[in-house]
Amino acid sequence: MTYRKQLISITAFLIVLMSGSQITYGAKTKTDLSKESIIPRPVSIIATGDYFTLKATTAIFIQGESEELKQVGLYFSERLKPSTGFGLEVKTTTKEPGSGSIYLAVSGTDPKLGNEGYVLTITKKMVKLTANNPAGLFRGIQTIRQLLPANIEKASKQTGPWKIATGTITDYPVYSYRGTMLDVSRHFFGVNDVKRVIDLIAAYKMNVLHLHLSDDQGWRIEIKSWPNLATHGGSTQVGGGNGGYYTQEQYSDIVKYAKDRYIMIVPEIDMPGHTNAALASYAVLNCSDKATELYTGTNVGFSTLCTTKDSTYKFIDDVVRELAAITPGPFIHIGGDESHSTKREDYIPFINKVQDIVLAHGKQILGWDDIAISTLKPNVVAQNWANVKNANLAVSQGAKILMSPAKKAYLDMQYDKSTKLGLHWAAYIELDSAYIWDPATYIPGVGKENVLGIEAALWTETITKMDDIEYMVFPRLPGYAEIGWTPSALRSWDEYKIRLGKQGDRFKAMDINYYPSTRVPWEVKK
Ligand code: TNX
Fold first, then answer.
1. Of 55, 109, 216, 236, which one has the greatest count of Cβ atoms within 10 A?
2. Whose CA is nearest to atom 8 of ligand 1?
3. Distance from the CA of 386 to the center of ligand 1, in angstroms?
4. Closest C-alpha residue for ligand 1 atom 11
5. pLDDT value, residue 525
6. Which numbered atom of ligand 1 lies nearest the CA of 300?
7. In whole angstroms, what is the distance from residue 150 CA to residue 233 CA?
């Protein structure tokens, strides 16, 4: 071989090597849309074997002049900005834009897409997302994020290229309620932490964040007519730390942040039990007329509002009125769980009266399944956590069930015996166990037609900081999101765990402190 030929072949070898290393680092051109690992798994994917490239010159076109669509376009542009370094312009248009654009349109032609479904059509020339509602476009944008390389999620500028495989995805959820609960009472979490949780659940197309705003250990929402609730009742937390509370302004900021991501906030005021923080703040709420001491332990079932006093219902009316006024979503959650210190003959009329109060303020009632022993009003939703009998009792009264079985969907349950955070009173919940169940068949006697949706709950007796939240929530949360979104016929653990393993790079790019379960074949680049 001549020196020149040798040089050429060495160069060729180097090029191959470099492209090989590109494969390792994820910039390989992926052209088969059906091989992408999207969570929740979409209803249908048709691949066409090419790719679209997102460039600095790509524009996001929205159909018409709708302010709401503009916001969705801006959200997408902002999401792509840190990693791509592109400041994609959002433009309005009345007709389909030309080559090299992303087009978001509300078309309203396909009823099966419902409120949150979307059709995503990717060609070499264009990414087109259509839905009946902006909410559907927002969900579809989450799919596009997952079709881009994992580096798209990084907070600093990355080198592309930003390619998306071509084809068509048609997608819509099985359940209308797909949520997560965060207990901000046992330990308080500030506005920024809550916003991060909202962003993390939004990425997996969840649409509800339930905030457990009051419990024995802390009252976390300012109520102007009963100010001590927050200033005194919110002043501590489990373990005796400083606690905290949201002013109504801060709460409204959370609500808006969630709403911009098509997530509804469900506020919970737990009663008549789990109320020590309130009982410590106002003597009048106690049958003894004596305020209790603040509580920083982790026992349950020792507190109760005085159910026989009129002033108690005045108190509840004030709280529900103020909360309803700052909560645009339909639900107020009244708790009702573990009221072991309330006599049954007091509990039942109490729950009946509280239901009337919530209805009088124009809101729909959500409560833990314990409330099923009372007379449920129309449209009540009972949240199942443990008791099969209560769930059936609720259904027999015409209520819908929100599925949060502690053995499957409690995010504070430890993964296994080695997990340092969390509890295990209901179960150890490894990744497979968290995924392998079906809300439509889990409770004998409760069928799909009775189920409103699914909610995974994070109680925070042992959870003190954002890193802890992430560790317990991830990687179980994408599985709950998929249970709520994807038809059960399309779900299997063996297939899911591979898709989940491929999300590892995304978790890293999003800087999520996740539990690296050995049940999942992680494909994480070093
Ligand atoms: C039960 S589930 C509770 C909560 C605890 C949780 C701990 C339910 C409605 N009540 O008060 O925080 O267990 O896992």
1. 216
2. 337
3. 10
4. 300
5. 82
6. 11
7. 43
Domains and CATH numbers, the chain: 33-171 (3.30.379.10), 177-494 (3.20.20.80)
The predicted model gives 87-101 an average pLDDT of 94
Atom number of ligand 1 nearest to Cα 404: 2
Share the mean pLDDT of the chain.
94
Is residue 338 part of the annotated active site? The answer reads yes
d(CA 438, CA 431): 15
* Atom from ligand 1 closest to the CA of residue 335: 9
- Show the ligand 1 pocket: residues with CB < 6 angstroms: 300, 337-338, 368, 385, 410, 412, 423, 459, 461
27-83 confidence digits (pLDDT tens): 456 799 999 999 999 999 999 999 999 999 999 999 988 999 999 999 999 999 999
Number of CB atoms found within 10 A of residue 286's CB: 20
158: nearest Cα among 95, 82, 224, 49: 82
Structure tokens at 515: 């539990």
Q: What is the pLDDT of residues 129-155, one digit of tens each?
A: 999 999 999 999 999 999 999 999 999
* Catalytically annotated residue among 116, 153, 268, 338: 338
The tokens describing 66, both together, are: 């709708």
- Calpha distance 89→53 (Å, rounded): 16
- Identify each DSSP E strand in 55-109 by its residue range: 59-63, 90-93, 101-106
The whole-model pTM stands at 0.94
- DSSP structural state of residue 374: S
* Residue of 401, 379, 380 lying closest to 390 (CA atoms): 401
